[in-house]
Amino acid sequence: MTEKIRRTTLADVARAANVAKSTASLAFSAPQRVAPKTVTRIRQAATELGFSPNPIARSLKSQSSAMIGLLIVDMHNPLNSEVLTQAQQTAAETDNLLLTATSNGDATKELTILRQFERLNVKGVILTSAGHSKEHLEQLKALSIEIVTLDLKLPGLGCDHVGLDNATATRILCEHLIEQGHERIAYVSGERDIYTAARRLEGYERAMSDAGLSVPDENVVHADFAGKRALAMTRSLLSRQIRPSAIIAANNLICAGVIEAVWDAGLSCPDDISIVSVDAAPWPKFMSPQITYAEQPLSKMAELATKWIVDRGERPEEDKGPRLSELKPRLITGNSVMTLSGNT
């Protein structure tokens, strides 16, 4: 009869490292709570014994977990790969496992996935939300897991948020166009009813007002951040008797629709119309012209959101109120803006 091979346990590792089992456990789940030399000794013993902790089993047995959830609204956006890469790296550096899922823009699916994360006792979830209604907000509040919203802020949720200084992003784009002589500047916005869209619209309107330029109602059109309505909305701008000399796209997926509409109309960028965007247009290195854009520091945002989840349990109880960090964008100039002289 074949002898059953005994698996190495955490208790074996603790004995080999001459520490308590609880200390050995902390060396994997919360290494910041154990002296660095002790962590090194425990992990060396684990390596020699062939022991590998099972984060899923550990989370099911205790109230603590070495797992972090990342729930993205849309994996089709190429920029989300940067978020995923950085969150994965930061989680690994803190000895956590990153579990990733996407809601595909479905608010009901988002709640289902969040409840699955909840059952796994994850430390917390980094969330770009698909739902913005009052009802959705109430269901998010009912969850027992920590949430850090990323990029898309949900006012009233009362959780930590890491995002972009959205008003500054569109303001610096608009100011750049104005500096190049543009006055008829149109804006293709995201959804009307979400925080990010409102702040980006605010930045555009402020820059126009500060320059003494009017914003006709017809120069602002509302698409959606998934880019599905951007093509049609941009066509409506281009069909006007006096079309804009420049268009600001509220994000990179909207920018793709703007570019397509310009091409379909037989126009060229920047000779006929200048285009700028919040975030780089998809595949910027292969595009001509290269689009001028306001860059989100996505890696820094993802790193901070992940660290906030990791250190949440270490913060004093009186210091556990919602944290807010809105990082500044950076203007990256391409060759998609025509410099105009005289009245545009």
Structure description:
- With 344 residues, the chain is an alpha/beta fold.
- Helix content is 40%, strand content 15%.
- The protein contains twelve helices and twelve strands.
- Strands 2-1-3-4-5-11 form a six-stranded parallel beta sheet, sandwiched between helices.
- Helix 5 packs parallel to helix 12 and helix 8 runs parallel beside helix 9.
- The chain is elongated.
Give the key terms.
single chain; 344 residues; Rossmann fold; six-stranded parallel sheet; six-stranded mixed sheet; 12 helices
Arithmetic mean of pLDDT: 88
**What is the architecture of the largest domain at the second tier of CATH?**
3-Layer(aba) Sandwich
Using the CA coordinates, give the radius of gyration. 25 Å
- Strand percentage lies at 15-25%
The number of E-state strands comes to 12
Reading the helices and strands in chain order gives HHHHEHEHEHEEHEHEHEHEEHEE
CATH fold descriptor of the largest domain: Rossmann fold
Largest sheet: 6 strands, parallel
The CATH fourth-level homologous superfamily of the largest domain: Response regulator
Shape estimate: elongated
* Domain module tally: 3
Share in helix: 40-55%
Structural class: alpha/beta
- Uncertain residue ranges: none
Q: What is the CATH class name of the largest domain? A: Alpha Beta
| DSSP summary: helix tally | 12
